[in-house]
Each structure stands twice: as structure tokens, then as C-alpha cells.
Amino acid sequence: MGHALCICSRSSIIIDNKRYYFIQKLDEGGFSYVDLVEGAQDGRFYALKRILCHDREGQKEAQTEVEMHRLFNHPNILGLTGHTFMERGGKNEAWLLLPYISKGSLWSVLEKLRDKSSSMSESRILHIFRGVCEGLKAIHDKGYAHRDLKPTNVLLEENDKPVLMDLGSMNKARIEVKGSREAMAVQDWAAQRCTISYRAPELFNVESHCIIDEKTDIWSLGCVLYCMMMLEGPYDLVFQKGDSVALAVQNPVAIPQHCRYSEGLQTLLSSIMVTNPQERPNIDWVLERVKSLQSSDGGAMETNRV
């Protein structure tokens, strides 16, 4: 890990002995900021994610995010170019240097379509969704779960290749809950780290003795598919109204009666968004169905699950 240095007079930073020039702010969240920077040596643009670490636990979480990036070398998962930890003004920060994808997130693309009263073609939905599934499969195959899959955490490259980002909520796929105290701890963690309108039903009311696994991602995946089809998440409006998302997710997802997409795509969506995680399909099943829909151009699907 290289030494980091802020050279304020020139608005530049050094990570792993390479200089980068600050260009502009891109985004900011509760505990992190994202800046656009340019490499002094290669002239390429990068996204610099600065995570504020308020305590040792915060530093540990940032280190985990770094390790998650390093764990994967997959075209549908955002890579890590470099990183460092440093102290600025008495505060600790983790700096993650990431590839910059100018097209932005899947959500920004969907918003533009909505503003134009347009929609996404079924073939485009399947193309993007397949890439999301490929990235998620890579995560699940290594025994991890993303835990915060949503359109804002999917970047799109120019050829519509999706790239999963924000690995800060990732953890081991299988969590065994033993007792009410552990159940409450998992529930509290989910409330902080898993976006409410994309959060799986089993994370709202965690049972005292249960297994939480990667099926939480499958539910979120269904929400992402719904959002691509309807240009808004299935529970976005519920949340915006101030109604109970926890209650809403206990019922089957409602597909609008005049949905413009094929019966095959609608069946896929209904098959993914099953309230009981034990009845939810795994990522391999979902990926196979997507491939089947692509090859049959939205034809009929089998309904048997793995």
C-alpha cells in the first residue's frame, strides 16, 4: 500500500507512488465522497472514493470493502485500481481508486427514459440483466452476498455492459442466526446497510433461529428487473408515501395489468420475487432462464426451479 499525500496547492494526490489531479466532485453519501481525478502519468480518468472512518470499526469496514474488490477479477464487477488509508485534519479516511465509467448508473439511464416518457426494450433489459446476473453469480460462487443490489449500484459502460459496484455491504453469504439477540443484530445491520425498498422480506423481521443466505440478493435482483421494466422500483412509491415497506413485501409483487413486456419476462420476474427465501430460485436458475429468453426472443419459459 502506497503512501498518500494531499498537495492542496496543486489539488493533487498520490496513491501507490502515482499522482492524480482532482477534477471535480461526482457524488457524496452519508460516509463517503466520490471525486473525479485524472492520472498524471496515463491521462486517464478515475473515480476516487473517500470513505470517512470515524472509529476502528469504520476502518475495519473500509478494509473489508478493499478486500472484497481484490477478491474478484470479473468483467461485471468493478475493479480496484489502488487504495490507501490516511489521516486528514485529525480524521481517518480510506481512499479507493476505481475505474471511472462516464455513462453513469443504471438508475440514471432509467431516469432519462422516464423523463422522456420512453421505455427500455426487452432485448436491452435482458442484455443488461444477464450481465448483472453474471456478476452476482461470481459473488455467490465465492460464498459471498452483495446485500445492497439496486440500480444505483449498477454502472453501465458504453456498450451497456453492467458493472456491479459498492461492495461495502458485502459479507459471507450464509449467516446462521442463533437466538433473539443475534437476530436483532442482523436486523439492525440490514436496516443500516441494505436499502429499504430493495431489502429482502426476511431482513425486516429476522427470526430467532434461521439461516440468512444469498437469496436476499435474488429478491433485490427481482427489484432491479422490475425497475428496468417499470422505470421505478416495486416499493419506491410505498417508501415515498411513508407506508410500511416491511408490510408491502409480504405480498406477491404486483405487475401492472397492461405490462408491455412478454409473458416470459413477467414470469421470470414473478419467479424471482417470492417472499419465502426457501422458495426463491438461485442465481444459476435465474441466469439459465435469462439465456433461454434471449435465445427464444422472449418466448415461453420453463417454471421448474433448481
TrEMBL record:
Reaction catalysis annotation: L-seryl-[protein] + ATP = O-phospho-L-seryl-[protein] + ADP + H(+); L-threonyl-[protein] + ATP = O-phospho-L-threonyl-[protein] + ADP + H(+)
One function term, GO molecular function aspect: protein serine/threonine kinase activity
UniProt KW keywords: ATP-binding, Kinase, Nucleotide-binding, Serine/threonine-protein kinase, Transferase
PROSITE patterns membership: PROTEIN_KINASE_DOM, PROTEIN_KINASE_ST
GO (cellular component) term, any one: Golgi apparatus
Signal peptide start and end residues: none
EC primary class: transferase
EC number: 2.7.11.1
SUPFAM superfamilies: Protein kinase-like (PK-like)
CDD domains noted in UniProt: STKc_16 (cd13986)
Keyword flag Transferase: yes
Protein kinase domain mapped to chain residues: 20-293
Name the UniProt record assigns to this protein: non-specific serine/threonine protein kinase
Pfam families per UniProt: Pkinase
Alphabetized PANTHER family for the sequence: SERINE/THREONINE-PROTEIN KINASE 16, SERINE_THREONINE-PROTEIN KINASE 16
Domain of life: Eukaryota
Family annotation (InterPro entries): Kinase-like_dom_sf, Prot_kinase_dom, Ser/Thr-specific_kinases, Ser/Thr_kinase_AS
Organism encoding this protein: Bagarius yarrelli (Goonch)
